Amino acid sequence: MSILVYIEQADGAIKKTSLEAISFAKALADKEGGDVTAVALGSIDQGELAKTGSAGAAKVLHVNDEKLNAGVIQAHAAAVAQAFEKVGAKTLVLAKSSLGDAVAARLAIKLNAGLVSNVTDLPDTGSGYKVKRSIYTGKAFAETELSTDNKILAVKKNAIDLKTDGADAAVENFEVSLDESVFAAKITSTDQATGDILLPEADIVVSGGRGMKGPENWNLIEDLAKELGAATGCSKPVSDIGWRPHHEHVGQTGVKVAPTLYVAVGISGAIQHLAGVNSSKYIVVINKDPEAPFFKAADYGIVGDAFEVLPKLTEAVKAL
Ligand code: FAD
Protein backbone atom coordinates (compact mmCIF):
# COMPACT_ATOMS: atom_id res chain seq x y z
CA MET A 1 0.00 0.00 0.00
CA SER A 2 1.20 3.51 -0.80
CA ILE A 3 1.62 6.37 1.63
CA LEU A 4 0.74 9.60 -0.16
CA VAL A 5 2.81 12.74 0.41
CA TYR A 6 1.52 16.19 -0.54
CA ILE A 7 4.41 18.24 -1.90
CA GLU A 8 4.57 22.02 -1.68
CA GLN A 9 6.53 24.06 -4.18
CA ALA A 10 7.76 27.66 -4.42
CA ASP A 11 8.44 28.98 -7.93
CA GLY A 12 8.88 25.47 -9.26
CA ALA A 13 11.26 24.32 -6.53
CA ILE A 14 10.15 21.65 -4.09
CA LYS A 15 10.29 22.87 -0.51
CA LYS A 16 12.78 21.24 1.85
CA THR A 17 9.97 20.66 4.37
CA SER A 18 8.17 18.53 1.76
CA LEU A 19 11.33 16.48 1.21
CA GLU A 20 11.45 15.97 4.98
CA ALA A 21 7.83 14.78 4.81
CA ILE A 22 8.82 12.29 2.09
CA SER A 23 11.74 11.02 4.21
CA PHE A 24 9.35 10.57 7.13
CA ALA A 25 6.86 8.70 4.90
CA LYS A 26 9.65 6.47 3.56
CA ALA A 27 10.73 5.52 7.08
CA LEU A 28 7.08 4.78 7.91
CA ALA A 29 6.68 2.71 4.73
CA ASP A 30 9.86 0.75 5.55
CA LYS A 31 8.43 0.03 8.99
CA GLU A 32 4.88 -0.80 7.91
CA GLY A 33 5.43 -2.12 4.38
CA GLY A 34 4.45 -0.34 1.19
CA ASP A 35 5.93 2.53 -0.75
CA VAL A 36 5.75 6.31 -1.03
CA THR A 37 3.90 8.18 -3.76
CA ALA A 38 4.07 11.96 -3.81
CA VAL A 39 1.59 14.33 -5.41
CA ALA A 40 2.83 17.64 -6.82
CA LEU A 41 0.58 20.43 -8.07
CA GLY A 42 1.33 23.12 -10.64
CA SER A 43 4.22 23.87 -12.99
CA ILE A 44 7.31 21.99 -11.82
CA ASP A 45 10.18 20.73 -13.92
CA GLN A 46 10.25 16.92 -14.41
CA GLY A 47 13.87 16.78 -13.19
CA GLU A 48 12.95 18.59 -10.00
CA LEU A 49 10.11 16.13 -9.42
CA ALA A 50 12.35 13.11 -10.04
CA LYS A 51 14.69 14.42 -7.30
CA THR A 52 12.04 13.53 -4.69
CA GLY A 53 13.27 9.96 -5.21
CA SER A 54 16.43 10.79 -3.27
CA ALA A 55 14.26 11.54 -0.22
CA GLY A 56 12.36 8.26 -0.65
CA ALA A 57 9.48 8.71 -3.12
CA ALA A 58 9.03 5.83 -5.58
CA LYS A 59 6.63 7.80 -7.76
CA VAL A 60 5.33 11.34 -8.18
CA LEU A 61 1.86 12.09 -9.52
CA HIS A 62 2.15 15.44 -11.26
CA VAL A 63 -0.94 17.57 -11.77
CA ASN A 64 0.58 19.92 -14.32
CA ASP A 65 -1.94 22.75 -14.18
CA GLU A 66 -0.56 26.27 -13.76
CA LYS A 67 -3.77 27.33 -12.01
CA LEU A 68 -2.44 25.27 -9.08
CA ASN A 69 0.89 27.15 -8.88
CA ALA A 70 -0.48 29.44 -6.19
CA GLY A 71 -1.60 27.70 -3.03
CA VAL A 72 -5.34 27.80 -3.76
CA ILE A 73 -6.39 25.85 -0.69
CA GLN A 74 -9.73 24.39 -1.86
CA ALA A 75 -8.26 23.34 -5.21
CA HIS A 76 -5.21 21.74 -3.61
CA ALA A 77 -7.40 19.84 -1.13
CA ALA A 78 -9.62 18.57 -3.97
CA ALA A 79 -6.65 17.47 -6.11
CA VAL A 80 -4.88 15.72 -3.22
CA ALA A 81 -8.12 13.90 -2.30
CA GLN A 82 -8.29 12.53 -5.85
CA ALA A 83 -4.65 11.39 -5.66
CA PHE A 84 -5.36 9.74 -2.30
CA GLU A 85 -8.17 7.76 -3.90
CA LYS A 86 -6.13 6.89 -6.99
CA VAL A 87 -3.26 5.31 -5.04
CA GLY A 88 -5.63 3.68 -2.53
CA ALA A 89 -3.70 5.28 0.31
CA LYS A 90 -4.72 5.16 3.95
CA THR A 91 -2.12 7.63 5.16
CA LEU A 92 -1.38 11.14 3.91
CA VAL A 93 1.84 12.82 5.05
CA LEU A 94 2.56 16.50 4.55
CA ALA A 95 4.74 19.25 5.96
CA LYS A 96 3.31 21.42 8.73
CA SER A 97 3.02 24.89 7.22
CA SER A 98 0.30 27.47 6.80
CA LEU A 99 -0.76 25.97 3.45
CA GLY A 100 -0.29 22.43 4.79
CA ASP A 101 -2.49 23.19 7.83
CA ALA A 102 -5.27 24.61 5.66
CA VAL A 103 -5.19 21.71 3.19
CA ALA A 104 -4.92 19.07 5.94
CA ALA A 105 -7.92 20.45 7.83
CA ARG A 106 -10.12 20.23 4.71
CA LEU A 107 -8.84 16.77 3.84
CA ALA A 108 -9.49 15.51 7.36
CA ILE A 109 -13.18 16.20 6.74
CA LYS A 110 -13.22 15.02 3.11
CA LEU A 111 -11.41 11.75 3.88
CA ASN A 112 -12.94 11.25 7.32
CA ALA A 113 -9.38 11.05 8.59
CA GLY A 114 -7.77 11.57 11.97
CA LEU A 115 -5.24 14.39 11.80
CA VAL A 116 -2.13 14.87 13.93
CA SER A 117 -0.03 17.98 13.44
CA ASN A 118 3.53 18.81 14.49
CA VAL A 119 4.56 15.15 14.30
CA THR A 120 8.18 14.66 15.39
CA ASP A 121 8.65 10.92 15.34
CA LEU A 122 7.44 7.78 13.61
CA PRO A 123 4.14 6.47 14.97
CA ASP A 124 4.26 3.55 17.36
CA THR A 125 2.02 1.15 15.49
CA GLY A 126 2.55 -1.79 17.85
CA SER A 127 -0.55 -1.35 19.94
CA GLY A 128 -2.87 1.29 18.57
CA TYR A 129 -1.41 4.02 16.37
CA LYS A 130 0.38 6.42 18.69
CA VAL A 131 1.98 9.51 17.23
CA LYS A 132 4.47 11.73 19.03
CA ARG A 133 3.97 15.44 18.44
CA SER A 134 5.42 18.67 19.68
CA ILE A 135 3.19 20.91 21.81
CA TYR A 136 3.40 24.26 23.67
CA THR A 137 5.65 25.77 20.99
CA GLY A 138 8.17 22.98 21.29
CA LYS A 139 8.44 22.87 25.08
CA ALA A 140 6.82 19.46 25.51
CA PHE A 141 5.73 16.37 23.61
CA ALA A 142 2.39 14.60 23.59
CA GLU A 143 1.32 11.21 22.33
CA THR A 144 -1.89 11.02 20.33
CA GLU A 145 -3.60 7.79 19.43
CA LEU A 146 -5.32 7.63 16.06
CA SER A 147 -8.15 5.16 15.60
CA THR A 148 -9.48 6.22 12.18
CA ASP A 149 -8.86 4.16 9.03
CA ASN A 150 -7.56 7.14 7.11
CA LYS A 151 -4.81 9.14 8.76
CA ILE A 152 -3.14 12.49 8.10
CA LEU A 153 0.25 13.27 9.63
CA ALA A 154 1.65 16.80 9.39
CA VAL A 155 5.39 16.66 10.03
CA LYS A 156 7.14 19.40 11.97
CA LYS A 157 9.91 21.27 10.18
CA ASN A 158 13.46 20.16 11.10
CA ALA A 159 12.23 17.23 13.21
CA ILE A 160 13.16 14.59 10.64
CA ASP A 161 16.56 13.79 9.14
CA LEU A 162 16.39 14.37 5.40
CA LYS A 163 17.14 11.20 3.43
CA THR A 164 19.22 11.92 0.31
CA ASP A 165 20.37 8.56 -1.02
CA GLY A 166 17.46 7.20 -3.08
CA ALA A 167 17.18 6.81 -6.86
CA ASP A 168 15.12 9.18 -9.04
CA ALA A 169 11.36 8.89 -8.65
CA ALA A 170 9.16 7.94 -11.60
CA VAL A 171 7.07 10.92 -12.67
CA GLU A 172 3.53 10.26 -13.89
CA ASN A 173 1.13 12.82 -15.29
CA PHE A 174 -2.07 12.88 -13.26
CA GLU A 175 -5.28 14.46 -14.54
CA VAL A 176 -7.72 15.69 -11.92
CA SER A 177 -11.21 16.96 -12.37
CA LEU A 178 -11.63 20.23 -10.51
CA ASP A 179 -14.85 22.17 -10.28
CA GLU A 180 -14.47 25.91 -10.98
CA SER A 181 -15.88 26.56 -7.50
CA VAL A 182 -12.62 25.37 -5.91
CA PHE A 183 -10.91 28.35 -7.54
CA ALA A 184 -13.43 30.81 -6.10
CA ALA A 185 -10.89 32.30 -3.68
CA LYS A 186 -8.10 33.49 -5.93
CA ILE A 187 -4.70 34.92 -5.05
CA THR A 188 -4.58 37.78 -7.56
CA SER A 189 -1.18 39.16 -6.64
CA THR A 190 1.52 38.68 -4.05
CA ASP A 191 3.76 41.43 -2.79
CA GLN A 192 6.89 40.61 -0.88
CA ALA A 193 7.25 42.94 2.07
CA THR A 194 11.01 42.91 2.61
CA GLY A 195 14.06 40.96 1.58
CA ASP A 196 14.36 38.06 -0.82
CA ILE A 197 13.72 35.37 1.77
CA LEU A 198 10.41 34.97 3.57
CA LEU A 199 10.84 34.87 7.34
CA PRO A 200 8.43 32.00 8.18
CA GLU A 201 10.11 29.70 5.66
CA ALA A 202 13.72 30.79 5.98
CA ASP A 203 16.35 28.19 6.66
CA ILE A 204 18.55 30.79 8.35
CA VAL A 205 17.32 33.82 10.32
CA VAL A 206 19.38 36.69 11.72
CA SER A 207 17.36 38.61 14.29
CA GLY A 208 18.10 41.79 16.20
CA GLY A 209 16.81 43.13 19.51
CA ARG A 210 16.93 46.33 21.48
CA GLY A 211 20.65 45.78 21.93
CA MET A 212 21.06 47.03 18.35
CA LYS A 213 20.30 50.53 19.73
CA GLY A 214 18.45 51.87 16.68
CA PRO A 215 17.29 51.27 13.09
CA GLU A 216 20.37 53.04 11.74
CA ASN A 217 22.44 50.04 12.86
CA TRP A 218 20.35 47.41 11.07
CA ASN A 219 22.80 47.31 8.17
CA LEU A 220 24.96 45.14 10.47
CA ILE A 221 22.14 42.59 10.77
CA GLU A 222 21.36 42.82 7.04
CA ASP A 223 25.01 42.41 6.02
CA LEU A 224 25.34 39.18 7.99
CA ALA A 225 21.94 37.97 6.74
CA LYS A 226 22.99 38.63 3.15
CA GLU A 227 26.22 36.66 3.52
CA LEU A 228 24.37 33.75 5.13
CA GLY A 229 21.42 33.83 2.70
CA ALA A 230 19.18 34.50 5.69
CA ALA A 231 15.93 36.32 6.40
CA THR A 232 15.94 39.08 9.02
CA GLY A 233 13.80 39.13 12.15
CA CYS A 234 13.53 41.18 15.33
CA SER A 235 12.16 41.18 18.88
CA LYS A 236 8.75 42.66 19.65
CA PRO A 237 9.91 45.94 21.20
CA VAL A 238 12.00 46.61 18.11
CA SER A 239 8.92 46.46 15.88
CA ASP A 240 6.76 48.24 18.49
CA ILE A 241 9.16 51.20 18.49
CA GLY A 242 9.10 51.16 14.68
CA TRP A 243 12.74 50.27 14.08
CA ARG A 244 11.57 47.33 11.96
CA PRO A 245 8.27 46.37 10.29
CA HIS A 246 5.80 44.33 12.35
CA HIS A 247 5.95 41.30 10.08
CA GLU A 248 9.56 40.77 11.19
CA HIS A 249 8.59 40.44 14.84
CA VAL A 250 9.40 36.94 16.05
CA GLY A 251 7.88 35.30 19.09
CA GLN A 252 4.73 34.22 20.86
CA THR A 253 2.76 37.14 19.46
CA GLY A 254 4.66 37.31 16.18
CA VAL A 255 6.05 34.96 13.56
CA LYS A 256 7.06 31.49 14.74
CA VAL A 257 10.16 30.34 12.93
CA ALA A 258 11.84 26.94 12.71
CA PRO A 259 15.05 27.54 10.75
CA THR A 260 18.10 25.34 10.77
CA LEU A 261 20.03 28.32 12.19
CA TYR A 262 18.70 31.23 14.28
CA VAL A 263 21.17 33.99 15.12
CA ALA A 264 19.93 36.29 17.89
CA VAL A 265 21.80 39.56 18.30
CA GLY A 266 21.18 41.87 21.27
CA ILE A 267 18.03 40.00 22.28
CA SER A 268 17.65 39.13 25.96
CA GLY A 269 15.78 35.86 25.43
CA ALA A 270 12.48 36.57 27.19
CA ILE A 271 10.15 33.58 27.30
CA GLN A 272 7.78 35.24 24.81
CA HIS A 273 10.58 35.58 22.26
CA LEU A 274 11.81 32.02 22.84
CA ALA A 275 8.29 30.71 22.17
CA GLY A 276 8.76 31.73 18.55
CA VAL A 277 12.24 30.31 18.02
CA ASN A 278 12.66 27.18 20.11
CA SER A 279 11.93 24.91 17.16
CA SER A 280 15.15 26.13 15.52
CA LYS A 281 17.74 23.42 15.01
CA TYR A 282 20.72 25.54 16.10
CA ILE A 283 20.61 28.82 18.01
CA VAL A 284 23.54 31.23 18.13
CA VAL A 285 23.30 34.09 20.63
CA ILE A 286 25.37 37.27 20.56
CA ASN A 287 24.92 39.36 23.69
CA LYS A 288 27.23 41.53 25.76
CA ASP A 289 25.63 40.32 29.01
CA PRO A 290 26.89 36.82 29.93
CA GLU A 291 23.81 36.44 32.17
CA ALA A 292 21.34 37.06 29.32
CA PRO A 293 18.70 34.28 29.54
CA PHE A 294 19.00 33.53 25.81
CA PHE A 295 22.36 31.81 26.44
CA LYS A 296 20.50 28.99 28.25
CA ALA A 297 18.66 28.19 25.00
CA ALA A 298 21.72 28.63 22.79
CA ASP A 299 23.80 25.97 21.07
CA TYR A 300 26.60 28.49 20.60
CA GLY A 301 27.06 31.80 22.36
CA ILE A 302 29.30 34.81 21.83
CA VAL A 303 29.61 37.15 24.80
CA GLY A 304 30.50 40.46 23.24
CA ASP A 305 29.41 43.79 21.86
CA ALA A 306 27.27 43.29 18.74
CA PHE A 307 28.91 46.31 17.13
CA GLU A 308 32.30 44.61 17.31
CA VAL A 309 31.20 41.00 16.77
CA LEU A 310 28.85 41.44 13.79
CA PRO A 311 31.35 43.02 11.32
CA LYS A 312 33.94 40.36 12.19
CA LEU A 313 31.41 37.55 11.83
CA THR A 314 30.22 38.90 8.48
CA GLU A 315 33.81 39.14 7.24
CA ALA A 316 34.50 35.58 8.44
CA VAL A 317 31.43 34.24 6.60
CA LYS A 318 32.42 36.19 3.49
CA ALA A 319 35.86 34.57 3.60
CA LEU A 320 34.43 31.02 3.66
P1 FAD B 1 15.75 43.82 25.96
O1 FAD B 1 15.04 42.97 26.93
O2 FAD B 1 15.90 45.26 26.29
O3 FAD B 1 17.17 43.15 25.75
C1 FAD B 1 18.21 43.73 25.01
C2 FAD B 1 19.40 42.79 25.09
O4 FAD B 1 20.44 43.33 24.32
C3 FAD B 1 19.95 42.61 26.50
O5 FAD B 1 20.07 41.22 26.79
C4 FAD B 1 21.32 43.27 26.46
O6 FAD B 1 22.28 42.62 27.26
C5 FAD B 1 21.65 43.15 24.99
N1 FAD B 1 22.57 44.18 24.52
C6 FAD B 1 22.53 45.52 24.77
N2 FAD B 1 23.51 46.14 24.11
C7 FAD B 1 24.19 45.18 23.42
C8 FAD B 1 25.29 45.23 22.57
N3 FAD B 1 25.92 46.37 22.26
N4 FAD B 1 25.74 44.04 22.06
C9 FAD B 1 25.16 42.87 22.35
N5 FAD B 1 24.09 42.80 23.19
C10 FAD B 1 23.60 43.94 23.69
N6 FAD B 1 8.89 39.73 22.75
C11 FAD B 1 9.25 39.20 21.57
O7 FAD B 1 10.41 39.35 21.13
N7 FAD B 1 8.34 38.52 20.82
C12 FAD B 1 7.06 38.32 21.21
O8 FAD B 1 6.27 37.70 20.49
C13 FAD B 1 6.65 38.89 22.46
N8 FAD B 1 5.38 38.72 22.90
C14 FAD B 1 5.05 39.22 24.13
C15 FAD B 1 3.77 38.98 24.64
C16 FAD B 1 3.42 39.45 25.89
C17 FAD B 1 2.03 39.19 26.40
C18 FAD B 1 4.37 40.16 26.65
C19 FAD B 1 4.01 40.65 28.03
C20 FAD B 1 5.62 40.40 26.18
C21 FAD B 1 5.99 39.95 24.91
N9 FAD B 1 7.27 40.17 24.39
C22 FAD B 1 7.61 39.61 23.20
C23 FAD B 1 8.25 41.05 25.07
C24 FAD B 1 9.27 40.28 25.86
O9 FAD B 1 8.79 39.99 27.14
C25 FAD B 1 10.57 41.08 26.00
O10 FAD B 1 10.28 42.31 26.60
C26 FAD B 1 11.28 41.34 24.66
O11 FAD B 1 11.47 40.14 23.96
C27 FAD B 1 12.63 42.00 24.93
O12 FAD B 1 13.18 42.41 23.71
P2 FAD B 1 14.76 42.56 23.56
O13 FAD B 1 15.40 41.32 24.00
O14 FAD B 1 15.02 43.07 22.19
O15 FAD B 1 15.08 43.78 24.53
Question: How would you portray this structure in words?
Answer:
The structure is a single chain. By secondary structure, the chain is α/β, with parallel strands linked by helices. The protein is built from nine helices and 16 strands. The protein has helices at 16-32, 46-50, 52-55, 73-87, 98-110, 218-228, 236-241, 271-274, 306-318; strands spanning 2-7, 9-10, 13-14, 35-41, 59-63, 91-95, 114-119, 130-135, 140-145, 151-155, 170-173, 204-208, 231-234, 261-265, 282-287, 300-303. The chain has a seven-stranded parallel sheet, with helices on both faces. The chain has a five-stranded parallel sheet with strand order 13-12-14-15-16. Strand 14, helix 8 and strand 15 (282-287) form a beta-alpha-beta unit. The longest helix has 17 residues, at 16-32. The radius of gyration is 21 Å and the shape is globular. The model has no long low-confidence stretch (mean pLDDT 93). Flavin-adenine dinucleotide binds next to helix 7, helix 8, strand 15 and helix 9.
Share in helix: 25-40%
Mean pLDDT: 93
Please tally the helical runs, counting DSSP H or I stretches of 4 or more residues. Answer: 9
Relative strand content: 15-25%
Strand order, main sheet: write it out.
7-10-6-1-4-5-11
What summary fits the major beta sheet? 7 strands, parallel
Q: How many beta-strand segments? A: 16
Bound molecules: flavin-adenine dinucleotide
Structural class, judged by helices and strands? Answer: alpha/beta
Distance from first to last alpha carbon: 46 Å
CA-based shape: globular
Catalogue the unreliable spans.
Answer: none
Order of helices and strands: EEEHEHHEHEHEEEEEEHEHEHEEH
The Cα radius of gyration reads 21 Å
